[in-house]
Amino acid sequence: MKKLSTTGGANAIVTKVSLIAALAGLLFGLDIAYVNGSLELIVKDFGLTTSQSENIAGILLFGAAIGAVFSGWLSRRYGRKKVLLLASLIFALFTFLGVFAPSYTVLLVARFIIGLAVGIASFVAPLYLSEIAPFKIRGRLIAMYQLMITIGILAMFLSNAALLHFGSWRLMMSVIAIPALVMFVGALFLPESPRWLVLVGRPDDAEKVLQRIRTSDEEVEFELNEIKETVKVKGGGWKLLSKSFFRKVIILGILLQALQQFSGMNAFMYYSGQVFKAAGLSNPAIATVVIGLVNMLTTLIAIRYVDKLGRKPILYTGLSILAISCAVVGYLFRINPPGSEMTSVEQWMTLIFSLLFIFGFAVSLGPIVWILCSEIFPLKGRDFGITITTATNWISNTIIGSYTLTWFAHLGVGGTFWMFGAFNLIGFLIVGFITPETKDIPLEELEKNLEKGVPLRKLGMRHVS
Asked: How many folded domains does the chain comprise?
């Protein structure tokens, strides 16, 4: 068989394509982290109540949930590339609307529509990456999406801290428009997903894409035939719900996405300033930037090892760290009720275990939940399955963003962290009993095992009879 390109050349093309697609994660991170540092300025500018200030964070998450619901239909009908273009355009246009919003209501509308784009992008970017990547490095490339989220969070924390002395939340928001325009231009040059092209009856175009991103004719022919075989399965979307094997992976995806949010990570991302302020730290803004830096650097560890060590060992490690960190931070706040002052040792312990908490999430639940939910669904049900699970993520995220301050008020910061710790313990059961190991196995082989009725936790075992 002749070589289509050098291995390095093919991998370079895949990496460039993946970086452009993963910019959706950067925008996700920027918008998520925006309220951490700017919220007090918005509250002061518009004279908002506590409920209204929670809405500034919550409305974007609600919009993301709505966007995720429609993203499967959009992606199936118009293709992954066009939907990425749509999301980036919405990001850019409505960020500008938010920057010049004359009132609280207009800002809410802008944040809601930006949320639609966040939900759409959070659906289609991991899906696109899973369908474009060679299976040997699939986990690593999908994890790039999570890395870009963490880079976006850190960049927003740094930007907000740098611009804080201007006292302008509008200036802070304007930063988000730049990467949105970059993503739009970059997405113009993306190839379409070969799996979507086969799905809509364009196998010749799919072959051309595979010839660009694979290393030999043999590899192209094998992958194209595998995709064609999976497309022969009758039915798709809602119709697949009549199949017990499809219902099982839907339930697994829902549980994983809910677990990711109720681990407590985004509560920390939105309100770490309030947590550190309650702990008595002299400069909560600097502590928040350190949190963002640890989040980003730790995700690099996940990218390096997710295809070597596998998904489940890393999940077990991360969940252990999360549960322990939640227990310790919760205890420190329980023995120091509101109005009392932590000792310097207790403040340092709060910061150290907060950093461990971020480490535990960023190395495990952060990237790996997106990886698994991009891998476990059969091709004809992938749009529908990822729509449902991504919507679950955003509905859960909306609950976290909208009610964390209320939980702090009623349960205390300590009680809230203990609640998150309990969810992380439940995560052990989910990973142990129903989560498969999916490294080093093609998507099509996972699909065949699923249709054979192989138990969920054994889907990644090769040559199952």
From this structure: 1
User: Is residue 53 a part of any domain in this protein?
Assistant: yes
Longest pairwise C-alpha distance within the chain = 74
- Kindly give the interhelix angle for 365-375 and 344-362, rounded to the nearest 10 degrees: 20
In a domain, 465, yes or no: no
Q: CB neighbours of 429 closer than 8 A, spacing ≥ 6?
A: none
Range of the domain at 318: 7-458
Check if the beta carbon of residue 104 is closer than 8 Å to that of residue 44. no
* Cβ atoms of residues 337 and 330 within 8 Å: no
Cβ neighbours of residue 341 closer than 8 Å, sequence gap 6 or more: 280
Please give the torsion angle defined by the CA atoms of residues 248, 131, 395 and 412, in that order, rounded to the nearest 10 degrees: 100
Q: CA nearest 369: which of 430, 286, 459?
A: 430
Average pLDDT over residues 9-18: 68
Burial letters for 238-255: b for 16+ Cβ neighbours within 10 Å, e otherwise?
A: eebeebebbebbbebbbb
**For 30, how many CA atoms within 13 A lie in the half-sphere containing its CB?**
24
Least confident range of 37-41, 68-72, 287-291, 301-305:
287-291
Q: Where are the alpha helices (DSSP H) in 310-378?
A: 311-334, 344-362, 365-375
Q: Is 201 exposed, middle or buried (0-12, 13-18, 19+ CB in 10 A)?
A: exposed
Nearest to 175 by CA among 34, 2, 377: 34
CATH number for the domain harbouring residue 353: 1.20.1250.20
